[in-house]
Amino acid sequence: MSAIKTIKEDWAADEELGDDLPPTTETTVDGITTIVSWKLNNLDQKVKVTRRVRRRLQTQLVSHTVAERKHLPKFGLDKGKPSGPDRTTTIIGENLHFKISATTNKAVEVEQKEDIAARATGGKTVVCRKCKGNHFTAKCPFKDQLAAIDNVDGDGMDEEPGLDKAGGLQAKGMGGVGGKYVPPGQRGGGAGESMYRPRDEYPTLRITSLSYDAEDEDLEALFAPFGHVMRANVVRDRETRESRGLGFVSFERKQDAEKAMAKMNGFGYDSLILSVSWSMPREPRP
Amino acid sequence: MKPIILQGHERSLTQIVFNAEGDLLFTASKDHIINVWFTSNGERLGTFGGAVGGAKHNGTVWTVACDSESKYLMSGGADNTMRMWEVNTGKCLKVWEYETAVKRVAWSEDDELVLGITEQRQGQPSIIRVYALNREDGASQSDEPIQTITLTGSKATVALFAPLSDNILVGHESGKVSKYSVKTGEEVLVNEDGHRGEITDIQLSPDGTYFITSSKDKTARIWDSETLDEMKVYATETPLNSACIAPLRPYVILGGGQDAMAVTTTSQRAGKFESRFWHKLFEEEVGRVRGHFGPINTLAVHPQGKAYASGAEDGFVRVHWFDESYFRSRPFGDLEPEVEV
């Protein structure tokens, strides 16, 4: 012990080491208890820990055996420790939102997001360019009337040719309904020009109960004998990149696709039986 | 709902159980030690093993079970032993030694019998042994089992005593559920039409007339204890490690996640580390509780239905006391059957 004392690591460190830590004190003022305890940190420096707690007595009726167990002395690794939870082994977690409801979790999440979005715009000052009201220009309730006035004035700005009525009134980049952004190619209802041929132009097969280990290449190799495969892909989870056991194969020619469907529906592949059907165009997203 | 987080283990949890009154929680883990906690405040009462010089498991503790009087505790581990402990003092009373690891232990309803399943390995078959215990003097126990059931075919992974303790309900690696007679050691009933993957947990309903199993095939199923008829199926999207039936309310709690090796490639948001609440009758998911950083290995529910606890691969145990809103919840409105609270 004395040998340790002579080596002074830090002038700020307390000279006293080890055994003689001041006792823990508790003082109660106005129902708030201040607990001052001392401990040594891993550099053997004394650390003062001050905790302020409000104690509330909760009464609970329990059976005799349970009450007796409460007074058992501790054993094993905790032998000799005082009663009460030890903060090194027990912590109270954050409050969890837990509600039993018939809706799935995903629906709840979407709702929350929309809530947040609504609040975010509510906090900012939004001024309508038409009526100076507290809303986006696109949602202005007077826009029809004011637009008419604008047109009478012959402003010219709103009379761009080729834009229909709704599009002309709204700020650029604003879509038709609900003020949501709509890409230029899809505005005004008509399909715009796209760089790609839409996928559905090729006869496409939908392959389900596909092995989770199958890759795009495997799928292509599997269907290549029937004709020229334009595209073969396996659907994966966006987050985990795990296969979802589903794939799409597009052929160049319809008769090849028909032949492939006739042959491969019910074909055993990697201990699973493939089911092949025509891929249905996806319904428009809400 | 504020969970109490218990961090008494250095490695992943293997099994947790409440005692009959629900005031104690026993937690077993791969770090060789069993902890016992007061559930009301999360205080640790003690550890079974861990004290210097004391007896302890010399390997992963796979399983733990407490009798209905909270007097004795049984445990089984990878050190090829089954041990009997005194709950109040943490003293090891008896050690049974085998050729292979003990994967599951269970008490009979009257606390007179105890069973242990040993692993199939190194040419050894999977064996269920049943012992009759001397409850007066805990330290003097017989080495010889009263019944030995050697399993042919798929090995047993989990088991428990059926009500009245005449039979043992067994879950197998192949997904088979079977029933063995304690008296004769013969297979009485079997149902192979349910699970398609290893059965990972088996827990009895409060009245014992049905039980739930969880499986690696991503489903949990409820079975009739008498006939082994399948009553309900809860199909999830992850392999399940544990399932239990909540008393008071018509819910079952399922926990799982993928294998430990796939954890690092999984986003926490994929929701595989949550305990899921399913409606017992309508087979619909009704809620989730998040919090763990790894797959949930084991779940236990308070025998009076006031709380539940989960133990996970991340080494934490979380004890959740239900809010009042849980007891009032009626997710399906008027369709909901009346339940006495």
UniProtKB/TrEMBL annotation, chain A:
Protease among keywords: no
GO cellular component, one term: eukaryotic 43S preinitiation complex
CDD domains in the cross-refs: eIF3G, RRM_eIF3G_like
Residue span, RRM domain: 203-281
Any single biological process term in GO: formation of cytoplasmic translation initiation complex
Pfam families, alphabetized: eIF3g (PF12353), RRM_1 (PF00076)
Principal place of residence: cytoplasm
Annotated segments matching region Disordered: 176-197
Keywords of the record: Cytoplasm, Initiation factor, Protein biosynthesis, RNA-binding
Gene3D superfamilies registered for this protein in UniProt: 3.30.70.330
Intracellular or extracellular location(s): Cytoplasm
General function of this protein: RNA-binding component of the eukaryotic translation initiation factor 3 (eIF-3) complex, which is involved in protein synthesis of a specialized repertoire of mRNAs and, together with other initiation factors, stimulates binding of mRNA and methionyl-tRNAi to the 40S ribosome. The eIF-3 complex specifically targets and initiates translation of a subset of mRNAs involved in cell proliferation. This subunit can bind 18S rRNA.
Family, per entry: Belongs to the eIF-3 subunit G family.
HAMAP family: eIF3g
Summary of subunit composition and partner proteins: Component of the eukaryotic translation initiation factor 3 (eIF-3) complex.
Protein name: Eukaryotic translation initiation factor 3 subunit G
Organism for this UniProt entry: Naematelia encephala
Gene: TIF35
TrEMBL record, chain B:
Keyword match Cytoplasm: yes
PROSITE patterns: WD_REPEATS_1, WD_REPEATS_2, WD_REPEATS_REGION
Annotated localization: Cytoplasm
Pfam families per the UniProt record, alphabetical: EIF3I (PF24805)
GO cellular component assignments: eukaryotic 43S preinitiation complex; eukaryotic 48S preinitiation complex; eukaryotic translation initiation factor 3 complex, eIF3m
Ranges: WD repeats: 6-47, 54-95, 192-233, 289-319
GO molecular function: RNA binding; translation initiation factor activity
Coarse class of the protein's main subcellular location: cytoplasm
A GO BP annotation: formation of cytoplasmic translation initiation complex
InterPro entries listed in its UniProt record: eIF3i, WD40/YVTN_repeat-like_dom_sf, WD40_PAC1, WD40_repeat_CS, WD40_repeat_dom_sf, WD40_rpt
Keywords, in A-Z order: Cytoplasm, Initiation factor, Protein biosynthesis, Repeat, WD repeat
Family: Belongs to the WD repeat STRAP family.
Subunit description: Component of the eukaryotic translation initiation factor 3 (eIF-3) complex.
Function: Component of the eukaryotic translation initiation factor 3 (eIF-3) complex, which is involved in protein synthesis of a specialized repertoire of mRNAs and, together with other initiation factors, stimulates binding of mRNA and methionyl-tRNAi to the 40S ribosome. The eIF-3 complex specifically targets and initiates translation of a subset of mRNAs involved in cell proliferation.
Protein name: Eukaryotic translation initiation factor 3 subunit I
Species assigned in the record: Naematelia encephala
